[in-house]
Design a protein that fits this description.
The protein is of the alpha+beta class. It has 2 domains: 98 residues, Ubiquitin-like (UB roll) (Roll); 248 residues, Creatine Kinase, Chain A, domain 2 (2-Layer Sandwich), CATH 3.30.590. The protein is built from 9 helices and 13 strands. A hairpin with an 8-residue loop joins strand 4 and strand 5. Helix 2 packs parallel to helix 8 and helix 3 packs across helix 4. It is globular and about 60 Å long. The termini are far apart. The chain binds adenosine-5'-diphosphate and manganese (II) ion (MN) (3 copies). One manganese (II) ion binds next to loops. It comes from Trichomonascus ciferrii.
Length: 367
């Protein structure tokens, strides 16, 4: 790929091989006030055994839409450690929650409430699998590989496509897949999507809070890999208006009882509960999701809840194989590609397994 803005990573390589004199580099990452990801790095004198060994840190929240300038310090509390696929060795990525100076969770920290819910329902062993769709743009904000001033041929050959003109940036996708595996993210697959230059990666099944953690790190790795290729990643749910598919984050769900023979009964019960809170769910299923949930392009309208076996035009789909066996999982097709995964897995757990007194997923969005 030729580009005017790419930094010269071939020169970087020889420096990455230099010994670090025992130091460990910890890249602290967090979700910012616009659902983007930020990071900064810290030198540690030795490798931590767990997050408890990692120091709390802080940053200027007024520069990330997370705090006013007059009280700008936001605290970073380490919650999970991953291996660093860019720096290798003992170097790590540290996923953090953001906390305010007054001891309350930062407004971009939806993980805290979600973790309380998951903890309260730990005995149910809720699993999630998220299918993250995304779109590639070049440095000039043009969909990658699309003809200048025009459009590619209509959708059809691109989904799971093979060959020049059918897929774009397979190198980025492949690099991201390897980087995620190395980091320790539970990435379960990838495929090219219906719209040209749109791809999907799947993460899961992950139990409880780990879903949001692995997805957040996987997104970070994607931005970071794409940066080296001079390509931008968009998580917008309808990046191109018209006859082009939008981008979602289908969320697959099961509990221990759904995964046992006879589990269909529990799947149906869960779907009944979901149908009664449709609008509360839609409210946390991503910004601009109304542009995507139109009832066309393999979506159900946001206006009403629906479900069905093998139906990709429904809000919730029971996979054919699950209906046949009588147990397994279901797929919530409503979440948009730009969701906060803690909000989505949180409200699903709340609806299906029950609310708890001190964690209200919807309320924290409206504060
Ligand atoms: P689709 O046919 O909708 O494109 P994918 O194969 O892309 O499905 O994604 C399926 C997702 O379902 C994966 O993320 C996988 O981890 C997840 N999954 C599989 N089994 C379960 C389960 N029992 N509970 C929750 N998620 C599951
Ligand atoms: Mn999929
Ligand atoms: Mn898909
Ligand atoms: Mn799906």
């Amino acid at each position: 790929m030729s580009s005017t803005v790419i930094s010269n990573t071939t020169n970087l390589e020889k420096y990455l091989r230099l010994p670090q004199n025992g130091a460990v580099l910890a890249e602290y990452i967090w979700v910012d006030g616009s659902n983007g990801i930020r990071s900064k790095c810290k030198t540690l004198s030795k490798a931590p055994k767990s997050v408890e060994d990692l120091p709390e840190w802080n940053f200027d929240g007024s520069s990330t839409d997370q705090a006013p300038g007059s009280d700008s310090d936001v605290y970073l509390r380490p919650v999970a450690i991953y291996k660093d696929p860019f720096r290798l060795g003992e170097n790590i990525i540290v996923l953090c929650e953001c906390w305010n100076n007054d001891g309350t969770p930062n407004r971009a920290n939806y993980r805290h409430e979600c973790a309380k819910l998951m903890e309260a329902h730990a005995a149910e062993h809720i699993w999630f699998g998220i299918e993250q769709e995304y779109t590639l743009f070049d440095e000039f904000d043009h969909v990658y590989g699309w003809p200048k001033g025009g459009f590619p041929a209509p959708q059809g050959p691109y989904y799971c496509g093979v060959g020049t003109g059918k897929v774009f940036c397979r190198d980025i996708v492949e690099a991201h897949y390897r980087a995620s595996l190395y980091a320790g993210v539970n990435i379960s697959g990838i495929n090219a999507e219906v719209m040209p230059s749109q791809w999907e990666f799947q993460v899961g099944p992950c139990e409880g809070i780990k879903m949001g953690d692995d997805l957040t790190v996987c997104r970070y790795l994607l931005h970071r890999v794409a940066e080296e290729f001079g390509v931008k990643i968009s998580f917008h749910p309808k990046p191109l208006a018209g006859e082009w598919n939008g981008a979602g984050c289908h969320t697959n769900v099961s509990t221990e009882s759904m995964r046992q023979p006879g589990g269909m009964k529990y799947i149906e019960e869960a779907i009944q509960k979901l149908s009664k809170r449709h609008h509360e769910h839609i409210a946390v299923y991503g910004e601009d999701n109304d542009q995507r949930l139109t009832g066309r392009h393999e979506t159900a309208s946001a206006a009403a809840f629906s479900y069905g076996v093998a139906n990709r035009g429904a809000s919730v789909r029971i996979p054919r194989s699950v209906a046949k066996e009588g147990y397994g999982y279901f797929e919530d097709r409503r979440p948009a590609s730009n969701i906060d995964p803690y909000l989505v897995t949180g409200i699903i757990a709340e609806t299906i397994l029950g609310s708890i007194p001190d964690a209200d997923i919807v309320k924290q969005v409206n504060h």
